[in-house]
Amino acid sequence: MQARKKYVLLGLCMCCWLLLYYWGGLQERLLGLITHKRGEVARPWPSWLDRDLLPGYADQAELQNDGGSGDSPRQRRQSWAGIYKDSRCRMDTCFDFARCQGQSGFRVYIYPPEKGERVSESYHKILTSVVESRYYTSDPREACLFVLGIDTLDRDQLSTQFVPNVDERIRGYPLWNDGRNHVIFNLYSGTWPNYTEDLGFNVGQAILAKASLNTEHFRPGFDISIPLFSKEHPQKGGERGWLVRNTVPPRRKYLLMFKGKRYLTGIGSDTRNALHHIHNGKDIVSLTTCRHGKDWEKHKDTRCDHDNQEYERFDYQELLHNSTFCLVPRGRRLGSFRFLESLQAACIPVLLSNGWELPFSDVIQWNQAVIEGDERLLLQVPSTVRAVGIDRVLALRQRTQMLWEAYFSSVDKIVLTTLEIIKDRVYSHISRNKFMWNALPGGLLVLPEYSTHLAHYPFYYLNLGISPGQEFTAVIHATSPLVSQSQPIMKLLQVVSKSKYCSQIIILWNSEKPPPHRSKWPPMPVPLIITDGRRKGSIQTSSRFLPHAAIETEAVLSLDEDTVLLTSEIDFAFHVWRSFPERIVGYPPRSHFWDPVKKAWGYTSKWTNEYSIVLTGAAFYHRYYHHLFSHYLPSSLRALVDRTSNCEDILMNFLVSSVTNLPPIKVAQRKQYKEMPTLQGTKTAPWVNPEHFTQRQECVSTFASWFGYMPLVHSQFRLDPVLFKDHVSVLRKRYKDLERV
Amino acid sequence: MCASVKYGSRGPALIPRMKTKYRIYYITLFSVVLLGLIATGIYYITLFSVVLLGLIATGMFQFWPHSIESSAEWSLDRRSVHDAPLVRIPMSSPIPERGDLSCRMHTCFDVYRCGYNPKNKIKVYIYPLQRFVDEVGVPISSTGLSREYNDLLSAISDSDFYTDDVSRACLFIPSIDVLNQNSLRIRETAQALAMLPRWDKGMNHLLFNMLPGGPPDYNTALDVPRDRALLAGGGFSTWTYRQGYDVSIPVYSPLSVEVDLPERQPGPRRYFILSSQTAIHREYRVELERLKEENGEALLLLDKCSNLSQGLASVRKRCYKGQVYDYPQILQESSFCVVLRGARLGQATLSDVLQAGCVPVIMADSYILPFSEVLDWKRASVVIPEEKLPEMYTILKSIPHRQVEEMQRQARWFWEAYFSSMKAIGMTTLQIINDRIYPYAALTYEEWNNPPVVKWTSVNSPLFLPLIPPRSPGFTAVVLTYDRIESLFRVITEISKVPSLAKLLVVWNNQNKSPPEESLWPKVAVPLKVLRTKENKLSNRFFPFDEIETEAVLAIDDDIIMLTSDELQFGYEVWREFPDRLVGYPGRLHLWDHEMGKWKYESEWTNEVSMVLTGAAFYHKYFNYLYTYKMPGDIKNWVDAHMNCEDIAMNFLVANITGKAPIKVTPRKKFKCPECTAIDGLSLDQTHMVERSECINKFASVFATMPLKVVEHRADPVLYKDDFPEKLKSFPNIGSL
């Protein structure tokens, strides 16, 4: 018994031991996993005992004295020009800055068209944009930049638009100078089958403004990548983006879509041939067709029939409207029409185009508006876009619209952006920073000559976390000679100067008579400045919006000499303006409307339920708009204003609304801001003249055609003081005077 | 290959060995005891307990050795760099090719190694330290591992980027220090690189170099042949920098750890322009001196001190006409500081200048500024072409004062965030590469460039695009109700008259009582839906119900029966012009109580408004989403617990994210239903008002700021109170009830 027991026990022990061993083995593995994990958090780079004894990477004296080399910097710079040419061009070496330092500044010259020269529609639009821009000059001597008259957009030898013998022709131009200071626009380069970057002529030292640029060929800081646009792309104005509201949740019917050709062979076919892999027929629709070109059936593969069939089931426009993300894969070339299409459609582009230098990549932060995919990782695209949160979808989508409207919606904008980028490089210390290019309202509406300081612009207060200044400058437009001390302007001066926010008053003298002596004006508690707005003695109505250097405050109160306002009205309007510094805030409302009979825009001064214009006879706005008015608008419009002595206020409203996309703001009840003319008056006010009104009708149409669209927007409310006409004691009301108007 | 000799057999490899040792020891002990016991013939119960004890002991022992091991690991950790294994490079060892200038991420970088990663973070592996020597035993570098490179590597290994698993790594960092090319033997260093086990033509390898090139012609990129390796270099010119592939990094200034320069308030300084570099080329110095002659005191032109002996002292001193100045402290006395190129483009001075909060005036043609891929240098520096040095003074004078102050602040912030330590430089470099690999998760311009103070005060509204949405989709009215059925039905009947109403949602917050039968509800022309909630919580009214299909939401209490249809329609029209704001009827104000030193809630007739009550307000559905999922701190729970202040919370939320004030519409009226008594109507209670003041203080502390904006205006129809035929007015019936 004893012995048996012993054996049993021994056997048990053995079993236990075996169990233990295995258990232990398992433990070991588990532990291995645990410690392995620990290994990641632990410090794998040792903290050396002799860390403090380690030598510095460089001696301090060495860091401070590396100037040793004896070369003359001037010589070095000169020698660069010889070394870094052609494919290694940079502004420093291939651009003649001296040409841009003249009196006239940044000017662009276009070679005159040669006899019998055929220019494609798109190139014609580009040239028109340059001619109509404020940088155009017809004198090559004052030009800083040159644009060829030869159409270089389509350099595909198989294309009908292809222009032969460009090389010989440009070499014959006396101004060519190996392409220095030239900009060459191009949309299509290379030809079947490789579609290289070759333009078929030597661009030399010219700046390429080219679509589908490859990062490897792109000369950074020199070339400019432009988007591929179709020949239907509008000259100016352009369609608005399609986003009209921000729905929440922001997802649309389809998550991701693509509908397009697939190349069976040749360059770019790999990406497009793979696209069907992500198609699931439900929220991801990725459709390709083999049907294009003449001999597609020759290369046809097994998928073609099925794909072609599926392709017909969906409508491209429907998909574009109803998809959250849109695939933008490379075509034969890197860029495709889809890019602009989806940008406009607020369908967030998902790029599959490795090595594409994105349009205006110098200045635009594309990762805030598109998803940059990788052709190699196509299968990750669905999970990537699915993981994009709703905040980001909202942000990306709005940004597509912002960029579309700021830089891409018309040929004008594309060309102007190209020119502005070059100009920023030429005058690099007076240029826009990245923030200006990427924030609303976009870089084209920011003129760095005004200021390079963000806080000087009306649009960035919120982004900078600051608010506009507490003071304003009143600018009074005086057109009639000073005859008596009871003139309306005298009363107005008293009223304005009483405002505690008024820091200075500027009288803009625009009368036939010379400005009266300072002593003729009453004494003022604030500085009074008289500025002569006339040019060569003649009245310049547009001069009321000249960027007078004397204006020291951000806010400008623009007044006519006969404006009737109360001090408290001024104060209240100023308060409102500080909440809306990018808009015009004022009293006299007007409206525009579409006249279906005349098929033209109309203008009305009648009292209506809505308004789209606030006249600048009694309005606040930011002083930057003076600068925009005088430098951004074409001289033709300002000439119209001067010729008719009319419409300057309408033009200002057009300008501000085109910047903000918003209506102006009418404050409080006053609509009539001038005394009705008395019959005995020696000189009737111009606005009583019926012709004056017809002119204004015409102005609205003229302005709309220059802008290419109607920027004015209607509003249905006005802003009153909080307790306006409420049934409460007048003593409680801060703006009680307003109720007596 | 001898390179595979590893001292680093720490980690998993070490564990089995140690364990076996302990196990043998343990087995012997255990067996001896067991055998002894059996031999003495003790009863089997005792034996069993012994076995059990043994089992437990074994189990425990399994764990013990590890603590012993990790402490062993720790002691291993504290070693000298001289203990690193020696690797001899054979003479004939292959040399990598020179860097390929056409390399880009999509051609020379293997993304498959990085893979799809929910965290969107690349994994970085660091090679263990080795000491490379050539065949005769001469090291490849005169300094070996430098302090800076060691700091860089340990910072990376401490970061989230780090992995010790070679097979999972996306980016590899050699431990071969190439920060300063001067201390390297080029050919041997290149051979050493090629010997790295995962080198694979340099694919996905990252090298850090701050001082490239050597005399006499000083190349602008590291001369060590490196195949396809990425280069984080500190002196790239536009011709050597592979845009989108290389990373331009600063030249680290060791002075920044030696000297503590406290941040100075931006503002005008004693000098306008300061030049502190000692090794400026003669030609530049002549031009600078000419500028000094023209502009006198505004310029300070410093140079080496001739009378001081060489060494540390001379590094920290500068002189002008015998007068001695402390460097870098003197930099803080100037608004602008000149940073001219030397033999190299990258200058350590740039770091000193930024640290001093002095705006750098960079004159180094073709230089790729540090981290220029993400940093907007135009906001922190002035870049002037070398040729224009004579015009420097005029150019700088034309910059507005306020902008100079902004630039000073920005310069200092750049230094703090991106220049101040090797860690900052390393992390920034990795983040830039990370942003390229996961572009959809990249940091934004604002995140890179806005200093904390701006980030704190500025707003980036989620609904930033100026849109006036079309009228047609209308709005969804969300009525919160508990049991006031009669009043609720009146509200529903009133609202249903509003032309733009698209849908009515009744949020039934009473769990004890069912809503009335369908037949009893008022007949309305739009869809009406009752949503029963699980709990009686105020935040239910702000839930982003799927049933809300319009952008515009009208939140309305079940006792708001005094709003006319014109007023509601007008409110909707105003909301369309302000879709990113709260547009409501009763306005309220917050005030600072100077006596109590805290915020106070004000519902009296005031001239100002900073809140609108959500008892009747239009707003964007997005804010429902924000309220429900993104409300900071414990505000949401607090509101539900106190059954109060949900409207104040909403006002805080919207004002905080948009930076804009709400819009009060139409004249003031008594917002109290005639039927309800003072006890019934929640908002009349005195304690209720005290509580609402408390809410404001509580929320202000959670938001750590007072986001509410005070305005003096309200919105009325254009022709409100005008002497104009009523029937021609769009909204005639305003303020009548």
From TrEMBL, chain A:
The keyword Disulfide bond applies. It is found in: Endoplasmic reticulum membrane. Its cofactor is Mn(2+). This is Exostosin-1c. One of its GO terms (cellular component) is endoplasmic reticulum membrane. Keywords: Disulfide bond, Endoplasmic reticulum, Glycoprotein, Glycosyltransferase, Manganese, Membrane, Metal-binding, Signal-anchor, Transferase, Transmembrane, Transmembrane helix. The lineage of its organism: Eukaryota, Metazoa, Chordata, Craniata, Vertebrata. Pathway: Protein modification; protein glycosylation. Belongs to the glycosyltransferase 47 family. One of its GO terms (biological process) is heparan sulfate proteoglycan biosynthetic process. It catalyses: 3-O-{alpha-D-GlcNAc-[(1->4)-beta-D-GlcA-(1->4)-alpha-D-GlcNAc](n)-(1->4)-beta-D-GlcA-(1->3)-beta-D-Gal-(1->3)-beta-D-Gal-(1->4)-beta-D-Xyl}-L-seryl-[protein] + UDP-alpha-D-glucuronate = 3-O-{[(1->4)-beta-D-GlcA-(1->4)-alpha-D-GlcNAc](n+1)-(1->4)-beta-D-GlcA-(1->3)-beta-D-Gal-(1->3)-beta-D-Gal-(1->4)-beta-D-Xyl}-L-seryl-[protein] + UDP + H(+); 3-O-{[(1->4)-beta-D-GlcA-(1->4)-alpha-D-GlcNAc](n)-(1->4)-beta-D-GlcA-(1->3)-beta-D-Gal-(1->3)-beta-D-Gal-(1->4)-beta-D-Xyl}-L-seryl-[protein] + UDP-N-acetyl-alpha-D-glucosamine = 3-O-{alpha-D-GlcNAc-[(1->4)-beta-D-GlcA-(1->4)-alpha-D-GlcNAc](n)-(1->4)-beta-D-GlcA-(1->3)-beta-D-Gal-(1->3)-beta-D-Gal-(1->4)-beta-D-Xyl}-L-seryl-[protein] + UDP + H(+). Residues 472-724 form the Glycosyl transferase domain. InterPro entries: Exostosin (IPR004263), Exostosin_GT47 (IPR040911), GT64_dom (IPR015338), Nucleotide-diphossugar_trans (IPR029044). GO terms for molecular function: glucuronosyl-N-acetylglucosaminyl-proteoglycan 4-alpha-N-acetylglucosaminyltransferase activity; metal ion binding; N-acetylglucosaminyl-proteoglycan 4-beta-glucuronosyltransferase activity. Glycosyltransferase required for the biosynthesis of heparan-sulfate. It is a single-pass type II membrane protein. Residues 103-387 form the Exostosin GT47 domain. The chain crosses the membrane at residues 7-24. Pfam families: Exostosin_GT47 (PF03016), Glyco_transf_64 (PF09258).
Automatic annotation (TrEMBL), chain B:
Gene3D superfamilies: Spore Coat Polysaccharide Biosynthesis Protein SpsA, Chain A (3.90.550.10). InterPro entries: Exostosin, Exostosin_GT47, GT64_dom, Nucleotide-diphossugar_trans. One of its GO terms (cellular component) is Golgi apparatus. Its main location: endoplasmic reticulum. Residues 119-399 form the Exostosin GT47 domain. It catalyses: 3-O-{[(1->4)-beta-D-GlcA-(1->4)-alpha-D-GlcNAc](n)-(1->4)-beta-D-GlcA-(1->3)-beta-D-Gal-(1->3)-beta-D-Gal-(1->4)-beta-D-Xyl}-L-seryl-[protein] + UDP-N-acetyl-alpha-D-glucosamine = 3-O-{alpha-D-GlcNAc-[(1->4)-beta-D-GlcA-(1->4)-alpha-D-GlcNAc](n)-(1->4)-beta-D-GlcA-(1->3)-beta-D-Gal-(1->3)-beta-D-Gal-(1->4)-beta-D-Xyl}-L-seryl-[protein] + UDP + H(+). GO terms for molecular function: glucuronosyl-N-acetylglucosaminyl-proteoglycan 4-alpha-N-acetylglucosaminyltransferase activity; glucuronosyltransferase activity; metal ion binding. GO terms for biological process: heparan sulfate proteoglycan biosynthetic process. Its EC number is 2.4.1.224. The keyword DNA repair does not apply. It is an enzyme of class 2 (transferase). It is a single-pass type II membrane protein. It is found in: Endoplasmic reticulum membrane; Golgi apparatus, cis-Golgi network membrane. Its cofactor is Mn(2+). Pathway: Protein modification; protein glycosylation. Residues 475-720 form the Glycosyl transferase domain. The chain crosses the membrane at residues 24-57. Residues 274-301 form a coiled coil. Keywords: Coiled coil, Disulfide bond, Endoplasmic reticulum, Glycoprotein, Glycosyltransferase, Golgi apparatus, Manganese, Membrane, Metal-binding, Signal-anchor, Transferase, Transmembrane, Transmembrane helix. It holds the Pfam family Exostosin_GT47. Glycosyltransferase forming with EXT1 the heterodimeric heparan sulfate polymerase which catalyzes the elongation of the heparan sulfate glycan backbone. Glycan backbone extension consists in the alternating transfer of (1->4)-beta-D-GlcA and (1->4)-alpha-D-GlcNAc residues from their respective UDP-sugar donors. Belongs to the glycosyltransferase 47 family. Part of the heparan sulfate polymerase, a dimeric complex composed of EXT1 and EXT2. Could also form homooligomeric complexes. Interacts with NDST1. Interacts with GALNT5. This is Exostosin-2. It comes from Cyprinus carpio (Common carp). The lineage of its organism: Eukaryota, Metazoa, Chordata, Craniata, Vertebrata.
